[in-house]
Design goal:
This protein is of the alpha/beta class. 41% of the residues lie in helices and 12% in strands.
């Protein structure tokens, strides 16, 4: 039976560093810059010279295991492989539930993942892509043995760090912030709601993970029934959240907007709203 472990969470919630640490475990297969090199995924750009995928080769110079190390690798490295998910997943609404599995069985997608596992000669695949957080209900139904590790981070920091993404629309910056914090709040509610239905979903606060990296790596692997096969001596025991740098950026108006939109969701996950006069409370 194929086991799929999904590392999920809203963008800028720590999913990349967790994915790259867990990918060191020898139990896992994962998508790399060398995955699916033929024409199975329409629109996947490849530039061949003597049948060698040059763009995948060059991508080795652009990827590294952790965000704070500037190494470049010729060996395979774990990537999101967004082209695969963008091609096969439906995109007609924001959040998907178990009921959507009838309409979207995703058999071809599962076949691609099984092909990748055969190439690795493994039966467990590690998958990371933040946008898949919106598909937990669907993925839980169509995959045979899924586990979901969901990182959630203080919505104040997340909404501000994602502001550039939402500012790319023609809307004014204030409206972009409203979109960003509303997306965080809506996704937080979806995570909370679906977690009450699934016993194969673990929610981890980004700040708690940063405070005890080794402890959470052990908890995650135990939760997924995977042996620890990572040399933790090469993994930091703690990471340093960057929340504070974002808390100093917003105007009073922006702080009020964040409090208004996400007050309940922040409280639900143990976060405080902005104190307009004295900082955060």
């Amino acid at each position: 039976m194929v086991k799929s472990i999904f590392i999920l969470g809203i963008e800028h919630s720590g999913t990349t560093i967790l994915y790259r640490i867990l990918a060191r475990n020898k139990e896992f297969a994962w998508f790399s810059q060398y995955s699916i090199l033929n024409n199975e995924i329409p629109g996947l750009k490849k530039y061949f010279i003597n049948n060698f995928p040059v763009n995948r080769y060059l991508s080795c110079f652009q990827t590294h295991w952790t965000k704070d190390v500037g190494e470049r690798h010729f060996l395979p490295v774990p990537i999101e492989f967004g082209e695969l998910w963008d091609y096969y997943l439906p995109q007609d609404k924001l959040f998907y539930t178990q009921e959507d599995a009838i309409k979207y069985p995703l058999n071809e997608l599962k076949g691609r993942i099984e092909d990748e596992l055969r190439r690795w000669k493994k039966n467990t695949i590690l998958i990371k892509r933040p946008m898949l957080t919106r598909y937990i209900g669907l993925l839980n139904e169509v995959f045979s043995d899924p586990y979901f590790i969901v990182l959630i981070r203080d919505g104040k920091a997340v909404s501000l760090s994602n502001l550039i993404k939402f500012s790319k629309t023609p809307l004014r910056k204030t409206n972009a912030l409203e979109q960003s914090i509303k997306y965080w709040a809506d996704t937080a509610n979806y995570i909370d709601s679906i977690s009450k239905k699934l016993d194969n979903l673990m929610i981890i606060r980004y700040e708690d993970f940063c405070n005890d990296v080794h402890g959470h790596i052990n908890k995650i692997l135990y939760f997924c029934n995977i042996q620890l096969r990572i040399n933790l001596s090469k993994v930091p025991t703690q990471l340093y959240p960057t929340n504070e740098k974002w808390f100093n950026k917003p105007t009073i108006q922006q702080k009020k907007l964040i409090n208004k939109v996400a007050k309940n969701e922040l409280k639900k996950f143990g976060y405080q709203t902005f104190n307009i006069s004295y900082g955060n409370k």
